Structures are given as structure tokens and as C-alpha cells.
Amino acid sequence: MHPIRLVSAAGQVADYLRGEAERGRWGEKMPGVGWLAAELGVNRKTAEAALRQLEREGVLVAQGVGRQRRIVTTMQAGAVRPLRVAILVTDDQNADYLIELRHLLELAGHFPFNTNQTLVDLGMDAGRVARFVSRIEADAWVIVAGSLEILDWFSRQPQPAFAMFGRREGLPIAATGPDKASAFAAATRQLIGLGHRRISLLCRQQRRLPQPGFPERAFLDELAAHGIPSGSYNLPEWQESKEGFGVLLDSLFSVTPPTALILDEAFLFNAALYHVIGRKLRVPHDVSLICTDTDPTFDWCQPSVAHIRWDTRPVLRRIVRWAANVSRGIEDLRQTLTPSEFVPGGTLGPVAEK
What we know:
It contains 13 helices and 12 strands. The chain folds into 3 domains: 9-77, Arc Repressor Mutant, subunit A; 84-178 and 311-332, Response regulator (Rossmann fold, 3-Layer(aba) Sandwich), CATH 3.40.50; 181-309, 3-Layer(aba) Sandwich (Rossmann fold), CATH 3.40.50.
């Protein structure tokens, strides 16, 4: 038995408009919301929702406020086909933005799915990833927070691939993510302005090697601009495990304790917070903490968490547009960046007087 497909009012309108557009009823431009609502006997909200669905599918292209949307027919851009989109993440497959991405791809008519192993499971090793990918039936791949080696391998494969975050700089691969370099610099400047000079940035290996990424370089450059020499203390190497992270923190605090830690992800922030509390250190009186990402739990924290914030919606829309282009046989290697901002919080304070 085939499952019943329930279609909303907006979905029914979108189906109708798609068919009429393919038949060439309106030529190159779709009529406006008001005209369509009156013509079809629906409210403006339903008509607008249908038009936005067709935008996500790539049938329509927005031309700006007050201008009619341009129609992209299969005659113009090749036949549309649903894609099996494999999503290969670093570790967390259930992040809110990934759930929303799968939902948006499904709305656009594709079949997204999480792979049964993550990049962490595969040791972030290109050879193991290659063997794993060869066993997966997929038309396209979305790789979340991949290393330079992993994304370089995907960029050389015949299957279309999209780098969501990760070390995509300079590679011929479609990509998007937040532009964190300026926010890293702002966070570092604020720490230095509060008297901090012993600042350590703790991030995963793929952010450090084979050379630091743009945000990490922005951090090091900001230290240099203020006359603070940088080295392994500021961007340390560590064994990526719970135990390895504990060893790193023990070594940092054993001789010349940092007065500030910048943690690259929420799970590292939480682990570091537990560690400093275990040492009976006060945040931010003894050590300031900054997370370079946001997390839903931060909204519940007192004191508030100093972090870097960015809007996931442009990132998700970019991936859906890429999938629409791939489904029509259009090569799309464009890389985009979403603005981010540093949000000071209660975990940030001046250096304690000795």
C-alpha cells in the first residue's frame, strides 16, 4: 500500500501554478499575489505560501520587492527530478538546523537522509569516507563541518556535493556558512580591552590543520595587532576525546592559567565550564569563557553566555537552491557567507586584580 500524500491548500495551489507555468500560460513572469488570490479564490497568505514553495523548488526566482517573480521552466533549465540527498555530519545529526534542512528539502520534493555513520565515526579520514560513500545510494551529498581533506575529496567526485560549514576555502565546491572572522576579532578585542593577555582558543583539529582557518587566523592576527605573541598556548593541539580535552585543560591551568578561554563549539564550552568549576574557579571573576557558536540552552543560562550568533535561515535556503539547480542539471559551485556577530554576556569579565 502506498502512503497517502496529504497536500495543504498552499501545496495544491503550488501544484496548479507549477503545471500552468510549464504549459507557458504566463510566459516568463508569474502574476502577483493579489491577482492569483483573486483568480484562484484563495486568500493572499495561501497564494504567497504557494509562491514561496515554488521559489524553494527553483520554479520561480524572486526579482525583488514589488516585482513579479521570474518563471524557470523545464524547457529553460532541464527536467526537474527528485534527489536522494545524503547528509554526512561531523557528529550531531539532530541539531535543530539539520532537522529544518531535511524538512525544507522534503518540501522541495527531495529525499534527504542522514547517513548511518558520521565523520567522527569515520575518523575524519578521507580514505574511509571514500569507501563509505561508495556504499551509499545518493544523488547528492551535504557534508557538515568537514575537514579540508574531506571536502577536497568530495570536490573531485562526479556526484554533486555541498559543504555546509567546514574548511571549504579555495575548493571548487558549493558551500555556505557563517562569516565568523570579524566576530572572532571582535571577541578577542573585547577580551584584550578587559586586560586579558593569556587567551587560549580551543577548537577541533580540522579548524587548526593543515593551517588555521580564517576565523582562527583572525584571532591570532588580533593578538599580534595588540603586541601579544602567539603560539601553541593560544591555539593548542590536543587529543580529540573527553580524556584528551581534560588533559589539555589540566596542562593549561597547571603553570600559567589562561584568564580567558574561547571554545569553538557548545559542547566544548560546557566541558570547559565543568572543568573550571571543578577547580573552584569562578566565571568570569577568575576566567572568562566565550563560545564561538550559539546553542538553544544558552537562552536559559544565568549568567548569560558570551557567544557568536548567526542566522541559520540564509544557510538553509542556499542549500535548497543548490539542490534545485542540481536537480535541473545546472552546475552550482557558488560559495556564500552569512554575517555573524559577537554577543557579550555574563561569562565575560575583566582580569581579576592580584
